[in-house]
Amino acid sequence: MKKITLFFAALLITTMAFGQHKHGNWCITDQITQDLMQNDPDFAQKYQESRNLINETVAAQNKQKKQAITYIIPVVFHVIYNDYRDNISRAQIEDGLRVLNEDFRRMNADTSNTRAIFKGVAADIEVEFRLAKKDPQGNCTDGITRTQSALSINARDNVKGLVSWDNSKYFNIWVVNSINPQGNPGMVLGYAYLPQAGQSGSRDGMVIRHDRVGTIGTSTGEGRTISHESGHYLGLLHPFNGNSCTIGDGVSDTPPVAAANFGCDLTSNSCHNDNPDLPDMIENYMDYADDNCQNIFTLGQKSIMRATLQNSSLRLNLRSTSNLTATGVNSPPPCQPTAIFEAERKVICAGESIDFTDMTEDGDPTIWSWSFPGGSPATSSQPNPTVTYANPGLYDVTLTVGNSAGQDSVTYSKLIYVKGVGSSVHYPNWSESFEGASLPTPDVTVVDGGDGIAFEITPDAASAGSQSLKLNNFTSTVMGEIDEVISPAITTIFTENLSLSFDYAFAARQTSNEDELNVYASLDCGETWILRRFYRGGQLRTGANTTQPYVPAANEWTTQTINFNAYVGPDPLLIKFEFINGGGNNFYLDNINFTGTIGTEEYFSDRLQVFPNPASNRFTIQSEQFELNGSVLTLSDMTGKQILQTTLETNNRSYSVDAAAFGLTPGVYLLTLENEGRIANKKLILE
Fold this sequence. Notes:
The structure is a single chain. The chain is α+β, with helices and mostly antiparallel strands. The protein is built from eight helices and 33 strands. It has four domains: 248 residues, Collagenase (Catalytic Domain), CATH 3.40.390.10; 79 residues, Immunoglobulins (Immunoglobulin-like, Sandwich); 175 residues, Sandwich (Jelly Rolls), CATH 2.60.120; 82 residues, Immunoglobulin-like, CATH 2.60.40.3080. It starts with 8 loop residues before the first helix and ends with a strand.
């Protein structure tokens, strides 16, 4: 589009009404600018002055000899999280910066996707974004702050009152759970304020959803939202600005666009008033095409962004040498690290492994010292070790990190819950009345969602006995908080009539509360979970709404029963009760009973015969499908412990076993025969 004159500046804003796009609001920069025009008498004049400054600087640039100078912008990410799920990692933030810098320097891997007609205007903006290394007080930082607040949900500028650094020195980016569309259709991914003289820190900067930062962690895209919003921050408008072929973004080398493009339609050409008549540049970061379709800023857009960084009334101070020194971007100080780490899983079965990941913040560690009581290895100096736990139990994990500035250590107590596989106590029955003294135990696992409030045993109420399990949901202020109770590993092989029953009680504060109870099953020791039953909203409630801490009366308990016959098999079964905070009151759980009977179901029994069965002292194995000679015979008890393994030597189709000779005692065994990759299982009962 041709350069916009100041005469059209007011028209520009009044035509920024963005909520009409049928696909939704990916970005609301237009809307917030229009709102300011309507509500702030001085804003229109300040906006016009700022656009004038940019246009004048662009004109001056065009008359000067070009110099390849890369501008550096100090960045701080303020992670405003509701709970642990949107408290994104440093690694994800750094990945977001990687995408941003690659896009601005035209080092992105998909530059080859730029269509030939636009390659001639593709630009390296020569602007880089780096995490600040000093905070406003001159203290060490990694350019990340973290604040837990319910304001993270449906956020707007209100989160900026929680934490904000001097906007003349730092590019503030607030990372939130979700953004309030305020009556506009669709999901808002982010927004940023356009540069303006005297811009208030309470307005300036970017707000972005956590799942639009980078390409790892919670991200659901290719990370291009941050590139789009950074374009706004440095003065770029949408190419479809004004939803008109005659207004546009004021950039000469971006073709006019009548409306935002979605998807990746390479045939789109919504305006024909340009000469030559070019298709819509859907690959431009400032349009709304899919992340994997975007790949270009233009030379004209470069001029605007660099002009913004050359104006002392706008963003010049950000990239000044003195500011880069003050924010630690130049000559960053050595910062003592703060030890943080994550475990891939917290609940496993004996014999399984867990990957641990160093998530240290503030300083970059050069040494790592891990301690894994009960694990193998028991110690490690690797940044991200893998540890195997052979025995059931609850285990602590300690990480110490250090560099030249110092060291820090953190211990997460009872972090790893290792379930005993096939414990005979839980074959196939398990019950829990919570009459014991305390939790957690190696059998029953409680997992706190992150607010410090977890399930605990209470004498306040019970459906049977004198105690139950209580979640103090009345005190929790974190909407969406997830707390869990996980059963021991239960053996179900050769069983039938499996059933789970439990009692619970719950009341809401008000009818609009949306708390949830979900019951899951897992056959791979908690790596994946299958939803078996859910109770939500009014369906969950057993007592009347109350604004006082809820304690159930005797008649306010309900008993629920779930069939588990689909989970009979050789793999251990875990059951999980998951409660999600929807603003309601306290939740109570009691009298859990998982029951079943040892049945006659066997696996691949048609390949193998064992007789007599039950046997008293001697039994015979016979198979027409297996070559018994050279086959491996294995006997395991119902705890999963291997009792006998031997290679058969016989020229017959049958083989006789003397139970007493092998030291076999009365009980139920799993007999396995394996030969050349073929396996058959049979239940054996010795009397």
